[in-house]
Amino acid sequence: VFALVPDTVYAQVSVFSEYRQSKFARLGRFNGFTEEDQDLSNLIFLSAALAPSDWGYEGTGIGTRAVLRAGARAGPTLLKAVVDANALFNGAGLDSGRVVATGTLAVRTADRHATFLQVSGGVQEGPPPGGEFDLGFQIMPRLWGPHAFVGTTSFRATFEHRFFMIDNIADLIGLGLAGFVDYGGAWYAAQDPRLGGNAGVSVFFGSPLSSLAQINHLSAGYRFGGGIEDSDLARWSFTLGSGIIF
User: Fold this and answer.
1) For residue range 144-172, what is the model confidence (pLDDT) as tens digits?
2) Is the pLDDT of residue 226 over 90?
3) What is the CB neighbour count within 10 angstroms for residue 152?
4) Mean pLDDT lowest among 60-74, 143-157, 164-178, 223-237
5) Taking the CA atoms of the chain, what radius of gyration do you get in angstroms?
6) What is the pLDDT of residues 84-118, one digit of tens each?
7) Residue 154, SS3?
8) How far is CA 190 from CA 151, 153, 187, 193, in A?
9) What pairs with residue 186 in β-bridges?
10) Residue 104 is inside which H or E element, if any?
């Protein structure tokens, strides 16, 4: 005999307001070998949602979100900044929340060269299991393994210079070289900050015909900090993964 699972119905009501001043910059040899539109729009987004207990939830909750974004271009220089914050409140006050801020500076002094500096930081309160900040491998610092830095507070920064050597080999692939320095980490509120970094070089490649500006990279370099074993061999590392999107 199979028991039927009872139907459940949840409902919520939400409102939002958005102001946008659209600005885009058409660029090539930036995040990939194909041309892309860099969104430099100024944006203010505010939203609120109400989920009453009478509408199927165990308790009444109020969710809020605010996104502030700005961008500018001056000659070869692009600047972008974004702050994204959200929070969930219930009868006991703040149930969970998250604030992340990121700033990016990019300079293209020559047609085949692009230089990036990006800094990001964030804090969380009461994240769901597995929802903490998780740094390493495809999230800076890139020469550390997956889940190398996990916690509710995070900081990360990277400096990278890309040289797009060859745009198109047999209509299949483009090749380039890059040098980079990453530094960052994540930790929990009860812990001391745990930070580590790496410096190295990359061979990157991507499709010149792709509709998405994206590269992959094979990187090698030297790791420092982060509580790594005090061994020169352990500090050297290499990784193959997707390139960072700026």
Assistant:
1) 989 999 999 999 999 999 999 999 998 88
2) no
3) 20
4) 223-237
5) 22
6) 999 999 988 999 999 999 999 999 989 999 999 99
7) strand
8) 10, 10, 8, 9
9) 154
10) strand 93-110
Phi, psi of 194 (to 5 degrees): -115, 115
Joined tokens for residue 143: 């020469």
**Helix runs in 133-191, H state only:** none
Half-sphere exposure of 70 (CA within 13 A, CB side): 3
Q: Which residue has the tokens 């300079």?
A: 107
Determine phi and psi for 55, rounding to 5 degrees: -105, 25
Residue for token pair 């745009």: 167
Decide: residue 31, CB within 10 A, 0-12 exposed, 13-18 middle, 19+ buried.
buried
Give the pLDDT of residue 45.
Answer: 98
Residue 172, sorted as left (phi over 0), alpha (psi -120 to 50) or beta, turns out to be alpha
Structure tokens given for 147:
């889940």
- In degrees and rounded to multiples of 5, residue 185 shows phi and psi of 175, 180
Structure tokens at 43: 């944006």
Which of the pair, 228 or 242, is modelled with greater confidence?
Answer: 242
Token pair, residue 41, equals 């729009």
Six-digit token string for 93: 């006050």
- pTM of this prediction? 0.89
